[in-house]
Structure prediction request, 219 residues.
Amino acid sequence: MIADNLRNIKASLPEGVALVAVSKFHPVERLMEAYDAGQRIFAESRPQEFAAKVPLMPSDIEWHFIGHLQTNKLKLVLPYASLVESVDSRHLLESISSWGSAAGKVIDILLEVHISHDEAKQGFSPDEIPALIEALPGLPGVRVRGLMAMASLTGDIDLIDTEFSAVRRLFDDIRTAHPELCDHLNVLSMGMSSDWRIAIRHGATEVRIGTDIFGPREY
Prediction:
């Protein structure tokens, strides 16, 4: 089933759009089914689960972290993550930079933009993003690869369209204002199982899909 799901989704993705398999709450056996079907990018959202799964899976996997990350959990995530997609505060951004500098590494991250109508969601307001980009020269331990966003959990397609469109405009504005960053600031992570087709219409370069690949969460 997982192999069929992956095949069907990948057949619908435009060239250049990456598929991130959101494997949180699923056991390693199901992740391995996806791996054996050719999937190589996986995402987790809980630091302890992330750190536990990494050594049990093949070493050629590209791991993304997509959950809220507390600064006291950095050591569980940063040694293994190819991309931290959920940087949602200035404090976390600075802490990751400090960790990276101390470790002699540059950590690839996405800035999470809060555009949904769910006030419980994390992230920066769109108005905060330009100042963060301007501050990057003072944060040598991070490299901003782009933006991540989650739309409102709703059946209102027009609202989702509006939210994803706003993030795309912000992404384009940043790249226009900072052409020196364009070689690496090129990731727009939008779209989940419920709305990834809409996200693609608005230029998502990667989609984060869990349920449509693995089925309902097992725990």
The chain has a mean pLDDT of 95. Residues 2-214 form a domain with the TIM Barrel fold (CATH 3.20.20.10). The chain has one domain: 2-214. Residues 157-177 form the longest helix (21 residues).
